[in-house]
Design goal:
The chain has 224 residues and is of the alpha/beta class. 30% of the residues lie in helices and 23% in strands. It is built from seven helices and ten strands. Strands 1, 2, 3, 4, 5, 6, 7, 8, 9 and 10 form a ten-stranded mixed sheet that branches. β5, α3 and β6 form a beta-alpha-beta unit. The longest helix is centred in the last third of the chain and has 14 residues. It is globular. The protein binds iron/sulfur cluster. Iron/sulfur cluster binds next to loops.
Length: 224
């Protein structure tokens, strides 16, 4: 598997996979571009303490399906959270991922907007959300609030769509501007988006009150 790094904190290990199949205009991830180093699943897990929660993020951790499955095999017994854009999360892959928690991004519901922003159609992502729900996965959907691109109306539409599937956990992420694309949403915009989504769904949160990234961590792979 090609990774940018493996980081350890007291509570969690993060495997940051390199490369991504989307080309989001506002991408804030350094891992999007292919690069990193090829490291076997066995070598990655050697550095992960027994029982520690593992977050698989990127870039996009599902673009190398085989590598992902070997890593999952090595991680048996760990709580695993897969953070994904959902495009490769089809039936075949999901059959081999039972027992994990999934954080799936839905960048936009509007097809034209999604294509423009990511370079890809969103139909596979929408299907992945249905599959996760139908198969009883522990999962949440998230959307990055990007002012004047993906804002309150679009977030309302996404929440309305999700509610047609079920009472899905939904999280709104506050955009961090890169290369002058858009701007950082003000807190009031995020609160308003949470409120708009809350008209349709019973469990809506945001990255403002619910931060998921550990603050103190050290990189253990590639060898520092
Ligand atoms: S899916 Fe994530 S990593 Fe990939 S281009 Fe979009 S924001 Fe960047």
């Amino acid at each position: 598997m090609r990774i940018s790094y493996l980081a350890l904190s007291d509570t969690r290990c993060t495997v940051q996979v390199s490369g991504c199949n989307f080309k989001c205009l506002g991408c804030f991830s350094n891992e999007r571009h292919q690069g990193g180093v090829e490291i076997s699943a066995a070598r990655i897990t050697e550095h992960i303490p027994k029982g520690r929660e593992v977050m698989l993020a990127g870039g996009e951790p599902t673009i190398d399906g085989e590598g992902l499955l070997s890593l999952m095999h090595e991680l048996e017994g760990h709580k695993v959270i897969l953070s994904t854009n959902g495009h490769c999360l089809d039936k075949a892959l999901l059959e081999n991922l039972t027992g994990i928690t999934v954080h799936i991004d839905l960048k936009a519901l509007d097809q034209q907007l999604h294509r423009w922003y990511t370079g890809k159609d969103n139909s596979r992502v929408l299907e992945a959300i249905r599959l996760l729900y139908d198969r009883g996965f522990d999962f949440e959907v998230s959307t990055v609030y990007v002012p004047h691109v993906v804002d309150i109306d679009e977030i309302g539409h996404i929440a309305a769509f999700l509610s047609t599937i079920g009472n899905i956990r939904y999280k709104i992420i506050r955009y961090m501007p890169v290369r002058g694309f858009s701007r950082r949403p003000v807190p009031q915009e995020i609160y308003a988006a949470v409120k708009a989504a809350g008209k349709y769904l019973g469990n809506v949160s945001s990255s403002m009150e619910n931060r998921s990234h550990p603050t103190h961590r050290r990189i253990v792979l590639p060898d520092p």
